[in-house]
Design a protein that fits this description.
The chain is an all-alpha fold and 120 residues long. It has one domain. Helix content is 68%, strand content 0%. It contains five helices and no strands. Helix 1 packs antiparallel against helix 5 and helix 2 packs parallel to helix 5. The chain is globular.
């Protein structure tokens, strides 16, 4: 496992934004769970590009990458549901979507730490 620093930074960002979203505290443009989901979705895409995107290109059909695809699809569904105010079950509620998105980002961060197994 390498690049633990990226995982720690991901955790700090995720925890901070989730706390802001669940408590409805005002910080910059985050003032509700919905705005926290949108912000976390954008930040999550950036983290995906830095960490897990590196080994997806080298081993697109490995078990880790397939798990990352599934988790990423769940995260993207939460983000898009809140961005366009879609009425999908469970993730239409901004607080549920925020928690699911946060867990998805953390899981993808953990999966990305095993990238050295695939990238040589």
């Amino acid at each position: 496992m390498k690049d633990i620093a990226i995982l720690v930074i991901e955790l700090i960002f995720v925890i901070f934004i989730v706390i802001l979203g669940l408590t409805n505290k005002q910080f910059m443009f985050i003032n509700s769970a919905r705005s926290a989901v949108i912000t976390l979705g954008i930040i999550g895409m950036c983290f995906c590009g830095i960490s897990i995107g590196k080994f997806i290109t080298n081993a697109p059909f490995h078990g880790f990458t397939i798990m990352a695809y599934v988790v990423g699809t769940i995260a993207l569904a939460c983000f898009i549901t809140q961005l366009f105010k879609l009425n999908l079950p469970i993730i239409a509620n901004p607080k549920n979507a925020l928690l699911i998105l946060a867990v998805s980002i953390i899981i993808k961060g953990i999966i990305a730490r095993f990238g050295d197994v695939l990238v040589k």
